[in-house]
Amino acid sequence: MALRALLRAAASLRGCALGALPPAGKQPAAPGLQQAAGMATLNQMHRKGRPPPRPVKLGPTFGRPQLKGVVIKTLIRKPKKPNSANRKCARVRLSNGKEVVCFIPGEGHNLQEHHVVLVQGGRTQDLPGVKLTIVRGKYDCAHVQKKK
Question: Please, what is the average pLDDT of the chain?
């Protein structure tokens, strides 16, 4: 009985009586269909308990700031529609076993097959699917050369 009284109080706070139509502006659900995901009722909270938290998205570096990897091959990629260039990329096998395409920033690079590189997160906006960037000046990837 106490639960029923609690449900009546919750319904009155929402602006409708038990069994009545929802307030103006809301469309009633079709018979036999569940209501769209919204606030859980007190009865649902009592029966099912607290919902589990959503898993945290790890991002392109799998929850780490940087990853070490080995260059498999260097590539040249073309950017998306309004831009026109040849973006230098590398296919890298990361230390966790995954193979990804990484962007090589700066003008000119010395990367070849079997070079060890450090990779960090950083999406290249006009290259679809490229979500990692190689760190210049670390391991086998040389610094950007100064212009003369």
Answer: 85
